[in-house]
Amino acid sequence: MSTDIIPISRPLFALVDVNNFYVSCERAFNPDLVNQPVVVLSNNDGCAVARSNEVKALGVKMGTPWFQLKELAKQHGIVALSSNYTLYGDMSNRVMTILRDFSPHVEVYSIDECFLGLQGLGSLWPIPTGIGQTIRHRIRQWTTLPVCVGFGTTKTLAKLANHIAKKQPSFNGVCDLSTMPHEQFEAWLSTIEVGEVWGVGRQLSLHLNAAGIKTVQALRATPPAWLRAKFGVVMERLGYELRGISCLALEELSAPKKQIISSRSFGQLIDSLTELSESVASFTSSAAERLRRQNSVCNAIQVFIQTNPFREQDKQYSNCMTVPLPNASSDTRLLVRAALFGPKRIYRPGYAYKKAGVILTGIDSAAVHQESLFTLHGAGNRSAKLMSVLDQLNQRYGRETVAIFSVSKNKPWMMQQKNRTPCYTTNWQDVPIAYAH
DNA sequence: TCTGGGGTCCTAGGACCC
DNA sequence: TCTGGGGTCCTAGGACCC
């Protein structure tokens, strides 16, 4: 069979990935950075979250704290830049827009990665590497960004192909595993460590290695049923995907988020409740903005605070609390007001806080599989009932002793002296601080 | 002394991704 | 001195139901 015609029925995926994305974005607007060793730093200039090839060649790992790099930076003239996420988001949109010209089936996987579904487009793009080079050329020309393209009959294989395209200069940025002769295919897989496979992280690598599975080829040769028995359904799926049986579909419609997190490490340690509350208010309002953008409502906010775990000499403390909203809402003022009960309850004086954040949960009730205390639909009955239960309890035991922390169908409440998260209470004002400990 | 089985709902925690 | 900020999915196990 000729390899340059793709049968209509055959699934084919492409993964397009921008090289060193944040660094490449910075270079687009400052050509002096080209060919220079460059890193982009995280919030507070804490860690290197993007590295140019020159920096990678120096052995700098992703996420290395900047203070550990300063000496190396001085030696090699590494340029360090603070991150500019507005810029990166804008550049990302431009790339995705260009990619939509190549296929109607697009899954934006992350800020710098995109899957294209090419099934049925064989007559339009008979040779995958051809479309790959066209994509590279056009994105380079229109945005200056360098990309690599990988093709495979499953998403996992397309990811792997992209990895090969990046590492092996001979591929010129485009690798097609779908038409590669079998011996060559196996040969490549045998050179790649199992940890490079999408979905195999540090822990799984260790366990796979212990079982004698060290290369991608070895993983591919392992019977999926055995993988399932030993590692679970996720690894089984990976096994099939590596064998060219597609288990992961293209997700063209981005589903609304099931939780929205807003959190930050502080540049300086914070010890006052006032400052903590201000941060929590600002986190909540930015999370609420994202909530409204996806047309969701939220019925519980988790607030968390913690000290700096890296300072082992300090007294450590971390705590969190889930604050319910009886009526689900996306109104910033309501959400902030509710969220502010969190720090009030869990704050302990005498600690130096390093990080805080909020998590909006119970959002988009149709998509949430676990039921929260107050759901948007039918909130009336249930929360009214709960309120009355709580009132009775409060009368009976006194307001000092009762908080509702767990609710299910046939067990409407439980008393809890010392709460664990999530702590649900319908009467924030009156639950004494001690119970939030 | 004997001490079910199948199902649901919920949570905590672990692992992974970029 | 200085150590990111988002997310997802899966599993085990407890509580509860009939």
UniProtKB/TrEMBL annotation:
Q: Quote the Pfam families the UniProt record gives.
A: DUF4113, IMS, IMS_C
Q: Could you identify this protein by its name?
A: DNA polymerase V
One GO term in the molecular function aspect is: damaged DNA binding
Q: Say yes or no: keyword DNA damage present.
A: yes
According to the UniProt record, one GO cellular component term is: cytosol
* UmuC domain mapped to chain residues: 13-201
The taxonomic lineage of its organism, from the top, reads:
Bacteria, Pseudomonadati, Pseudomonadota, Betaproteobacteria, Nitrosomonadales
Keywords from the UniProt entry: DNA damage, DNA repair, SOS mutagenesis, SOS response
State the family named in the UniProt similarity comment for this chain: Belongs to the DNA polymerase type-Y family.
The Gene Ontology biological process terms listed for this entry are: DNA repair; error-prone translesion synthesis; SOS response
